[in-house]
Amino acid sequence: MRAVDIIHKKRNGGALTNEELSFLIKGYSQGDIPDYQMSAWAMAVFFRGMDAGETACLTMAMAESGDRVDLSPIRGVKVDKHSTGGVGDKTSLVIGPLVAACGVPVAKMSGRGLGHTGGTIDKMESMPGFRTELSREAFIAQVNDIGVAIVGQSGNMAPADKKLYALRDVTATVESIPLIASSVMSKKIAAGADAIVLDVKTGSGAFMKTLDDSEKLAKAMVEIGTQVGRRTAALISDMDQPLGFAIGNALEVREAIETLHGRGPDDLAALCVALAAHMVVLGGQAADLAEADAMLREKLRSGEALAKFKQFVAAQGGDPAVGDDPSLLPEAPAVVEVAAPKGGYVHAIQAEELGLAAMLLGAGRETKDSVIDYAVGITMRRKVGDPVSEGETIALLHVREANAAVQEVSRRVQQACEIGAERVAPSPLLLSIVTEQGVQRLAN
């Protein structure tokens, strides 16, 4: 078998076999197939695409290129949740304990943030003492004991994907649905979950900017999961504005805690319950979404979800008192108000711009080696559709000191908030549900 023949076949629109894809990924991982041949193959896939069977085979080849986590010692159906990345997305901090409180084990591996998107691991590490590295034995024991553990991803999980992504990034082949879908799912499958719920973001602050493209990506990932024996569902959620109001690590943990107390932002609470409902159904603890929804709301109302959060924090070395006293989290020494440049109604909030602004304050990473300041970030005061008066505070910047660089960030935040004379309605939060039965569009 030769790489050039596989490239030629895909270039001409042929469907590759499992053996051909395994040969290609194994050869590239081991250094036997050079970058220039893999680049040619990636470009052929970019233009010719892959069918569902090919994409599933590619996914498994990448999942098998490194470590795979065996979660079989954990009792019950293990359900994982993955977000394609957004601004202010702190759902895992709510969903993990909430779903565990319903009897579904959550054994989750999460990543760090880069660029305008935040990472769950960074947010959890803003809680003093919280450990995001556990041994396999401790990880499994914790999930069996309290129902939830969230740790950082293994350094050798799906290494072929990591190598291929770096190549795609410099060869203009990132925006390929089969390659994106296999990249995400290879890591989820390697992480060992029995079922997977995907939160596919769409809009200005997401990687996928249009609903059509987001549905194509969600459908491809659900098909992969189904083909390889994982029950999989996807929700497509709006990212035309930040989720909730807080952007930045400790600020987002505080907002997640408020949500577990039942007083968080409406959009964050609604998305957490919607995603968690699918997890509870796939985990076999509810017959349908309506039953799951009622169960989840009762866990929030009764305080059981909050109690599970405290258990989770304590188990991983943090202070459970943070669940009742978020002032124990890091706090920035200075707060700068951002004023509305004119009155009217908020027409749009450019989520990506706000994510980049938070990164400039130190809340995110510009490169993988950047050091994060857990205390800094942005708290928005308005959502799309809200009225605003000229000079009114539309955001708060939580900073180390109010210097010239912060004033530049303030201007960027002002520019990210578009204000017009007429009232507008915000986009619906939930746009589509994708299952193995197909795509159900909830909003046009």
UniProtKB/TrEMBL annotation:
It is an enzyme of class 2 (transferase). InterPro entries: Glycosyl_Trfase_fam3, Glycosyl_Trfase_fam3_N_dom, Glycosyl_Trfase_fam3_N_dom_sf, Nuc_phospho_transferase, PYNP-like_C_sf, PYNP_C, Pyrmidine_PPas_bac/euk, Pyrmidine_PPase_CS. GO terms for molecular function: 1,4-alpha-oligoglucan phosphorylase activity; deoxyuridine phosphorylase activity; thymidine phosphorylase activity; uridine phosphorylase activity. Its cofactor is K(+). Residues 345-420 form the Pyrimidine nucleoside phosphorylase C-terminal domain. Keywords: Glycosyltransferase, Transferase. One of its GO terms (cellular component) is cytosol. Its EC number is 2.4.2.2. Gene3D superfamilies: Nucleoside phosphorylase/phosphoribosyltransferase catalytic domain (3.40.1030.10), Pyrimidine nucleoside phosphorylase-like, C-terminal domain (3.90.1170.30), Transferase, Pyrimidine Nucleoside Phosphorylase, Chain C (1.20.970.10). GO terms for biological process: pyrimidine nucleobase metabolic process; pyrimidine nucleoside metabolic process. It catalyses: 2'-deoxyuridine + phosphate = 2-deoxy-alpha-D-ribose 1-phosphate + uracil; thymidine + phosphate = 2-deoxy-alpha-D-ribose 1-phosphate + thymine; uridine + phosphate = alpha-D-ribose 1-phosphate + uracil. Catalyzes phosphorolysis of the pyrimidine nucleosides uridine, thymidine and 2'-deoxyuridine with the formation of the corresponding pyrimidine base and ribose-1-phosphate. NCBIfam families: PRK05820.1, PRK06078.1, Y_phosphoryl. Belongs to the thymidine/pyrimidine-nucleoside phosphorylase family. Homodimer. This is Pyrimidine-nucleoside phosphorylase.
